[in-house]
Amino acid sequence: PKAEEPAKPAPPTLSATVSSVTLNDVPIGAPVALRLPNGGYYALRNDSHARLKARIAPMVPTYCQRLPNTPVYSPVTNMSWVTVEPRTFDIPPHSESEAMVIVRLPDDPSLLGKHLEFWIRAEAMANGMASVALYSRIRLDVAKERPAELERVRARGPESRTLKDKK
């Protein structure tokens, strides 16, 4: 009888909570976190039976990656405007790990009303051999005007008084 060959490990299976999303009214000069309608962040899900080592990074989309018949979104060419934390992590089998994606456009009035996009590339490797990559498209519809000045809130100390206390 023929000896059975050892079973080959299944390839890694990875999914992301975001495949394509548009952030509306993105302000200039202020950080904006990518949040999903359910309140969660960008996350990778490992549907494999093996632990995955993953890394994610923002990237400039190439011309061929842009969608036809859609409004023209200019690529974000300065990736320092995008922060991803953490960029690397281990994902146990059948679980997910979140990463915070923060966009901070510079305080540059020439960006007002622009349509920009960048991509997030997620790559995972299992058992040091097989790998899989995902791409998520993030579009930014920049606000048409500067945001109103945000009110600064300070903690009240023992020396602060309310209007009632002042006599």
* Termini Cα gap: 100 Å
Count the E strands.
Answer: 11
Question: Which percent band covers the strand fraction?
Answer: 35-45%
Order of helices and strands: EEEEEEEEEEE
SS content category? mainly beta
What is the approximate shape?
Answer: elongated
Radius of gyration: 22 Å
Low-confidence stretches: 150-167
In DSSP terms (H or I, runs of 4 or more residues), the helix count works out at 0
Percent of residues in helices comes to under 10%
Biggest β-sheet strands, sense, barrel: 6 strands, mixed
Residue-averaged pLDDT: 80
Q: Which features does this protein show?
A:
167 residues; mainly beta
Give an overview in words.
The strands form 2 sheets. Strands 2, 5, 6, 8, 10 and 11 form a 6-stranded mixed beta sheet that branches. Strands 1, 3, 4, 7 and 9 form a 5-stranded antiparallel beta sheet that branches. Helices cover about 0% and strands about 45% of the residues. The chain is built from no helices and 11 strands. With about 170 residues, the protein is mainly β.
Explain briefly what this protein structure is.
By secondary structure, the chain is mostly beta strands.
Topology:
Layout: E1 14-16, E2 20-26, E3 31-33, E4 42-46, E5 52-59, E6 74-75, E7 82-85, E8 88-91, E9 95-104, E10 115-126, E11 130-142
Parallel strand pairs: 2-11, 6-10
Antiparallel strand pairs: 1-4, 3-9, 4-9, 5-8, 5-10, 7-9, 10-11
